[in-house]
């Protein structure tokens, strides 16, 4: 139930608690103030009292909730929430809202992206944080209206307990835990992705090969990051520290990252971007992994932004 609310309101656990507290405190304040005001009138007719009380609390509720939301830091959420209710109950506001909504959609369409990850999720986190359409962060949305072109709408993971799931949870992003059989022998979750209106897929440390139905459903719309300079050190079994160990064993003097489109073969699709870093004779798989992570975090979000801003 709480999970559903978080996903629906696109908030993290802390914000959810604060929102529920605002509802409770705002409701109490509204009931208390309404009663006090009516007592001041000295009205004695019980039926009229009830009618006026209901009317008063209906009018007072938005004010009280907004007041309480200020110290609890939830003003932006409640402002949006109250406007939504207003649009639902007032035909005039609904027409205005519809007009606004239509303009917003035409000028400022938000592309929904899904990140597929099975690990710690540091790349996923950076992409979420730097995404200009980070709808889960009101401030950024308001500041970056002109840039609001895409948002991370879903995290897909094949590993229960993976760090990336916690990152998604904290950002209030829905997650989809996938099953091997349905992924490789079923519909590869195409229907599920369509249900979430996903238009672009970013692989960030996802170890399963992408099956054909998914590639066909998202032609040139799936990209991957590989922690080495492809075409070297790619392919089956080349993941995580194994890549860095192979680079060091081959006495390479440089390594780097490769961002590429995904096709039916491992680490094979057309290259989009590469960045390099030196490999030192003292480097271990661990230290090289750190250098590579820095490169990934600096470039992957920018490359994604570049592809999506120019229309995917
Ligand atoms: C990255 O090094 C990426 O290149 C590789 O898997 C790693 C994922 O790291 N495909 P993280 O889970 O994003 O921290």
Protein described:
- By secondary structure, this protein is of the alpha/beta class.
- The protein is elongated, with a radius of gyration of 25 Å.
- It has 13 helices and 7 strands.
- The chain has 2 domains: 2-89, no CATH class; 109-309, Rossmann fold (3-Layer(aba) Sandwich).
- Strands 3-2-1-4-5-6-7 form a 7-stranded mixed sheet.
- Mean pLDDT is 86; it is low at 93-107 and 134-145.
- 5-O-phosphono-beta-D-ribofuranosylamine binds at residues 117, 119-124, 204-205, 225-227, 292, 296.
The total count of helices amounts to: 13
Strand content: 5-15%
Would you identify the CATH architecture of the largest domain?
A: 3-Layer(aba) Sandwich
N-end to C-end Cα span: 35 Å
Q: Overall 3D geometry?
A: elongated
Q: Which value, in Å, is the CA radius of gyration?
A: 25 Å
Q: Uncertain runs with pLDDT below 50, 5 residues or more?
A: 93-107, 134-145
Physical arrangement of strands within the biggest beta sheet: 3-2-1-4-5-6-7
CATH topology term of the largest domain: Rossmann fold
How many domains, in number, for the residues?
Answer: 2
| Overall residue-averaged pLDDT value | 86
Could you say which structural class the secondary elements and strand pairing correspond to?
alpha/beta
Look at the structure and name the CATH superfamily of the largest domain.
Answer: Formyl transferase, N-terminal domain
Give the CATH class of the largest domain. Answer: Alpha Beta
Which ligands does the model contain, each kind named once?
A: 5-O-phosphono-beta-D-ribofuranosylamine
Q: What is the tally of beta strands?
A: 7
The helix content is: 40-55%
Describe the largest sheet: 7 strands, mixed
H/E element sequence: HHHHHEHHEHEHHEHEHEEH
């Amino acid at each position: 139930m709480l999970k559903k609310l978080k996903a629906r309101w696109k908030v993290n656990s802390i914000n959810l608690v604060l929102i529920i507290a605002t509802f409770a405190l705002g409701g109490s304040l509204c009931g208390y103030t309404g009663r006090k005001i009516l007592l001041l009138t000295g009205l004695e007719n019980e039926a009229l009292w009830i009618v006026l009380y209901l009317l008063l609390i209906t009018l007072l509720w938005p004010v009280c909730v907004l007041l309480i939301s200020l110290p609890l830091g939830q003003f932006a959420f409640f402002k949006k929430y109250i406007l939504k209710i207003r649009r639902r109950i007032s035909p005039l506001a609904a027409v205005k809202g519809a007009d606004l909504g239509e303009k917003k959609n035409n000028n400022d369409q938000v592309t929904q992206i899904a990140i597929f990850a099975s690990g710690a999720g540091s790349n996923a986190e950076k992409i979420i944080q730097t995404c200009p359409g980070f709808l889960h962060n009101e401030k950024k949305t308001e500041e970056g209206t002109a840039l609001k072109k895409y948002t991370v709408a879903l995290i897909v993971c094949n590993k229960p307990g993976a760090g990336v799931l916690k990152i998604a949870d904290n950002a209030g992003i829905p997650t989809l835990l996938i099953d091997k059989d349905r992924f490789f022998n079923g519909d590869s979750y195409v229907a599920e992705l369509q249900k979430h209106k996903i238009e672009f897929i970013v692989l960030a440390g996802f170890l399963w090969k992408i099956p054909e139905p998914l590639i066909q459903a998202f032609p040139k719309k799936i990209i991957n990051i590989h922690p080495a300079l492809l075409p070297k050190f790619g392919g089956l079994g080349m993941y995580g520290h194994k890549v860095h160990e192979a680079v060091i064993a081959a006495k390479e003097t440089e390594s780097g990252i490769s961002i590429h489109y995904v096709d039916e073969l491992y680490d094979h699709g057309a290259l989009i971007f590469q960045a390099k870093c030196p490999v030192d004779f003292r480097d271990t798989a661990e230290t090289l992994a750190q250098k590579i992570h820095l490169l990934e975090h600096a470039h992957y979000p920018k490359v994604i932004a570049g592809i999506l801003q120019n229309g995917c």
